[in-house]
Structures are given as structure tokens and as C-alpha cells.
Amino acid sequence: MDRVNLAIIGGGLVGASLALALQDEARKRGWQIVMIEPFTPGVGYQPSYDARSTALSYGTQQIYQRLGLWPAISQRAEPIRQIHVSDQGRFAAARLSAEDEGVAALGYVVENAWIGECLWRALDPDVVTWRSPAEVVSLDPLADGYRLTLDDGSTLDCDLAVIAEGGRSSLREQLGIQVRHTPYGQTALIANITPQDAHAGQAFERFTAAGPLALLPLADNRCALVWTRSGEDAARLLQASDADFLAELQQAFGYRLGALQQVGARYLYPLALVEAAEQVRDHLVVLGNAAHSLHPIAGQGYNLSLRDTLALAECLLASTAPLGDLTTLQRYADGQRSDQLRTVGFSDQVTRLFSRDDKLLAAGRSLGLLGLDMLPPAKRWFARQAMGLGTRAGY
């Protein structure tokens, strides 16, 4: 296969979702889609206590429902029925509930491996083929597309190349696409926790002097922890014994779920806001974390990327121009600009507001949380942001 219509570089959740969104129409049009991925996918789902997970907003659930994938994903999806937002050491708190919003769940927490397994099973090998394990080492523009050179020395031409290889994309850098990199001076510590009490579908956002933390409900009464600390502090917690780690987390989180009983493997991720200055060129799209990487505490990153993915698929399928036409791609980018600006702004402002250890600001936060809990319009607005409905009505 020397030429394909679409080459998706990165076979993770974003790349596979794009392939799925295009698959049915691609079959009718005779398009060939290739996914190029360093790690061989689809080896079978294996439950793991330490599995990484993603919070899918209500809007994302609606997108996967439209794509026919939600019945499969839902088998391992833990619903978020309530969100409890609090500031350590202060009385005020805000509570959001699915019941108040008239939905079954505000969102869902699902293991990444399970989402991937569901996506890979749904892809039709007659339309979507894989090159894996394989890596694109260079990407060169042609008059009518791009030429990909793979790590085995082979080449592949395509009408449209989509870079979906993650936030540290070497191809993005190779093509001279500038990025705005704004470090937060924080590191996210990720782990799974088992509490004494049933989480009952509750998600917690807790803001402390040392940094915000989130505890999200997972299957099997586990909770996914995202704990934001300084780099030095996070490194210390990574090395702490399980008992010492749980004791410190308990002190920061409190006893809303009883005693914290078990912690799994811990991982560290330095945090920064990363935005690509260009997301489209002639015959080229930058998608997912390669386009924008957000702070995880607001849970907006993957949900924004999936909205981008669906919007891109809709633009490609609505166009009568050749695949990769810049006017079509620019229409996609212009259409998503408002969503991206609002979502990135919301995530960044929440992160900065609740990450500063300032007494006057903390008092203002406390009043804000109290007001949020007491004012239905404000509460409704915040809930819609959390549900992924604040920027694109209908999802």
C-alpha cells in the first residue's frame, strides 16, 4: 500500500475515535485509512487495579452514543452522580448532582484500556488498517498530500495526515509548528485508591494550600486520584510508603469516604498548558494533546479533544473538495476556535484560582463556593461546563 486517503499518526483514543467517526462514510466512498502506532493495540482487555482512567463528560457520552460505541464502553463505565467541590479548612462547599440536571450521570469514569479496547474492536479492518508497531520518523509535504517515512525505512503517501501522537509530538516540532508552553510549576501524582466506604458515584474536587486534588469514582469501588503538588513534594510522595502516603492524603482529603485503605502504583506528570500555534495546514491536521494539553484537575482535556475529533469528521464528510483541502480544514479550525478558547480558559482559570495559597483569595473562593451552591443560575453554568455542554449545545 503506497498511498492512502488518510493517515492517522497515533492509534490512541483520539486517533481511533476519528477513524471510527469516519468509518461508515469512508466505506461508501472507498477511502482507505491507516493508523500508525508504536504499540500494538487490541491484545485483549485485562482488568488491573492500577489502570489509568479518563473522566468522560456527559457530552462525550452523547458523542460515543451517536457513534454506536457507548453500549460497549458502558460495561466498565462508573457514573458520576454527584460532584462535591470544597476548599480545605473552610466551611463552604458546592454540590452538583445529576438529578438536579435531569440526567442519569454528570459524566463517567472509564479505564483508558477499556475505551481503547472498545474502539479497536469497532474498527473495520477493510476500511481501517494498522501499521504497528511502527513510528513515523519524518513527514514531508507533497503537492497533493504528505509522504510519511516510517522507522523501518518504508514510505507511505496520503491525501491527509493527522498528527494525534500526544503532547510531546516530535513531528509537530519537526514541521516547525510553534507551541505556547506555560508551565504551572506543578506535578500531577496519579494513583488509584480504595476507600473504606462506598463512593456511591461521588466525585470530589478538593482545593488545598499545597495544590488541588480530585478523587473520581471507578468500578470495583476504587477511586482515581489526581493530586497536584509541587515537583519536589510530588517526588517525595512518590517514594513514601503506602501507609505514609495514605495518611497524608487522608489529612488533605478528610473522611468523606471513611479511611483510605489501599493505594496502587503512583505516577508523576509535570503540568503545563500547551497550545499549538497552528492546528491545520494544507493536507495536515494537529489533533488531541498535540493540539492542546490542559491541566487535568478540571477534567476537560480529553473531552475537548473528542469534540474536536467529531467536528473534524463532520467537516471532512460535509465537504465536496478533495480530502486535505485547506479551506475545509480551516473551516474546521474556525468552527472549533470558540470551544477551544472557552474550554482552555475555563480550565486554566479554575487551576490558577484554586492553586494559589493566598488568604484573601482563599476567603473569596469560600464565598464563591457558597454562592455557587446557593445560586441556581451560577450552579447551572458550572454544571454545564463540567458536563461538556458549555460550548456546544446539543451534546
From TrEMBL:
Keywords: FAD, Flavoprotein, Monooxygenase, Oxidoreductase. It comes from the Bacteria. Its cofactor is FAD. InterPro entries: FAD-bd, FAD/NAD-bd_sf, UbiH, UbiH/COQ6, UbiH/COQ6_monooxygenase. Pathway: Cofactor biosynthesis; ubiquinone biosynthesis. NCBIfam families: PRK05732.1, Ubi-OHases, UbiH. Belongs to the UbiH/COQ6 family. This is 2-octaprenyl-6-methoxyphenol hydroxylase. It comes from Pseudomonas cuatrocienegasensis.
